[in-house]
């Protein structure tokens, strides 16, 4: 299995390290040719405007869209979630426009307002190992977006206590407002890999 991590800006190294620790071949992606032969792609956190502009400059947007249309699994974390969305509040144009969600950037405030939360995510029980079943996921939010509206085909995976959607999936698209790569809990990466392996 080969998983690509968009490596234009942001927390891509951490994703690559976790994937390698899980025994998966992980490839940094900076050019369209590097998408070839991949079983899935992670779009990491970082600065969504910068990542989007660089992806457009290097001709990556249309190949990523084709990858999604071909059924390959794509996971966006934090900024990556924003890039996947069909609608971004505040008039910003959508980047990839693949996922039927409306998002709000920096929904929880500036970097000093970053926080952590223990989230119940029942979907992760499908790949849970001994002692992991039912355990909350320790989620790290850094200048995080939130999903303010989700279409009928979108499944909510996690919410904050106030009901805010912070993780969702739609077919072969997966999105988290938080940073699983900044924890020692590999369940979200294993969940992604399990879905990527499905024919």
Model description:
The protein has a single domain (2-197), classed as Class I glutamine amidotransferase (GATase) domain (Rossmann fold), CATH 3.40.50.880. It is 23% helix and 30% strand. The chain is built from 5 helices and 12 strands. The chain has helices spanning 12-21, 48-57, 61-69, 79-84, 187-197, and strands at 2-6, 25-29, 40-43, 73-77, 85-88, 99-104, 115-119, 137-141, 146-150, 155-159, 165-170, 173-176. The strands form 3 sheets. It has a 7-stranded mixed β-sheet. A 3-stranded mixed β-sheet has the order 5-6-9. The mean pLDDT is 93.
Helix content: 10-25%
Spatial strand sequence of the major β-sheet: 2-1-3-4-12-11-10
Give the distance, in angstroms, between the N- and C-terminal Cα atoms. Answer: 12 Å
By secondary-structure content and strand pairing, the structural class works out as alpha/beta
CATH superfamily: Class I glutamine amidotransferase (GATase) domain
Which CATH C-level class is it? Alpha Beta
Beta-strand content: 25-35%
Main β sheet profile = 7 strands, mixed
Q: Quick one: how many beta strands?
A: 12
CATH topology, by name, is Rossmann fold
Poorly predicted regions are none
The number of domains? 1
Second CATH tier, the architecture: 3-Layer(aba) Sandwich
What is the arithmetic mean of pLDDT? 93
């Amino acid at each position: 299995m080969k998983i690509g991590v968009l490596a234009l800006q942001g927390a891509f190294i951490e994703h690559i390290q976790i994937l390698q620790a899980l025994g998966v071949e992980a490839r940094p992606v900076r050019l369209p040719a590097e998408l070839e032969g991949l079983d899935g792609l992670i779009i990491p956190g970082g600065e969504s405007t910068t990542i989007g502009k660089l992806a457009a400059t290097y001709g990556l947007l249309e190949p990523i869209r084709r990858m999604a249309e071909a059924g390959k699994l794509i996971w966006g974390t934090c900024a990556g979630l924003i890039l996947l969305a069909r609608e971004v509040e505040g008039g910003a144009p959508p980047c990839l426009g693949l996922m039927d969600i409306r998002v709000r950037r920096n929904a929880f405030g500036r970097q000093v307002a970053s926080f952590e939360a223990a989230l119940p995510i029942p979907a992760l029980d499908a790949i849970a190992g001994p002692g992991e079943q039912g355990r909350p996921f320790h989620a790290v939010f850094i200048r995080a977006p939130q999903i303010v509206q989700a279409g009928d085909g979108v499944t909510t995976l996690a919410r904050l206590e106030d009901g805010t959607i912070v993780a969702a999936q739609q077919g072969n698209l997966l999105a988290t407002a938080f940073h699983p790569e900044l924890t020692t809990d590999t369940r979200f990466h294993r969940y992604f890999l399990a879905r990527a392996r499905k024919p």
